[in-house]
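Project standup — Tuesday

K.O.: blocked on the structure for the chain from last sprint. Re-posting the sequence here as requested.
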Amino acid sequence: MKLPLPKVIKTKRSAKTTHKSRTPTPAGNTVQYWLPVRDVSNGILRRSDDRLVAIIRVEPAAFTLLSQAERARRIAALHEVIQALPGAVQVCAVPRPIDLDAYITGLEAKLVEVDGSRKTILRGYVHYVRGLAATAAAMERRFYLLVTGDGKNKGVREELLHRMMELVAALNRAELQAHLCSDQEVLDLLFCFFHPAQAAFERAAIPAVAPVYTTAKDVMEYGLD
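H.V.: unblocked you, prediction finished:
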């Protein structure tokens, strides 16, 4: 005995239920849409989620040249700074090649002024420095401290700047050179993250400071850091 099959009742669906909701495609958006950064103003970075980020740059110190007592004193002072950090702080170290173009230009200018054996030694040193620049062997390491704040609340920018200035003063008391990053320095840091390959040989408009040595022996002994 065959049982009758149930009839399929077809119902009309509204146009709203049949079509899936579509999110607008970002094809027509600018490059700003793809970056997690909305704005950089007065040394403060505003992220796409409205969080504010203040950045401190800490200069490297010649720690190996210090005595044991000086090392212990600086380590203790830095430990006090870490214990007094205002909330969550991100520490970032960025290695990058040193821009030696200005340094090489200065050496080439000195070639015209010297003569005799000095000129021969200086020409060999210029060739050596050019090799360092071509192979990106001369590296520097930049250190940054990043502190965030909620940009949706009023007065957060002023409070964040105040906290950062106190942190800079504490680092200076620990015998570390630190300062609040300018807009150009913030953009240079972002450039290192967003385009590291290009940042290896292209610089932002920041004057490069390269150490000055008299002989190639000094470079081999003290390095270029």
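K.O.: great, moving the ticket to review. Strands lie at 37-41, 44-47, 51-58, 89-97, 139-150, 178-180. The mean pLDDT is 75.
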